[in-house]
Amino acid sequence: MSEREIPGELAALRASIDNLDAALVYLLAERFRCTQQVGHLKAELGLAPSDPAREEEQLQRLRQLARESGLDPAFAEKVLAFIIAEVIRNHGIIAEAVSS
Hints:
The protein is mainly alpha-helical. Helix content is about 85%, strand content about 0%.
């Protein structure tokens, strides 16, 4: 099926998905800007890059939000775990730079 033969409803849904993908990217970028600031503060205060208690709170909160929104909590947890791992990695890099 060529682009011209795609039904209008499918094209509209795809456009919505594209818009949502863009929003996700912008939201992730903003989240990482905030976590970069957290990383600098942690490094200045001599705190560890990882905060397991905070991470568990976030996971619990995310599971609840996922359930409330009809999203599979296990999927949401995997996504957040990936994001948290990247944040911790970045915080470690910042801590190394500050301590050098």
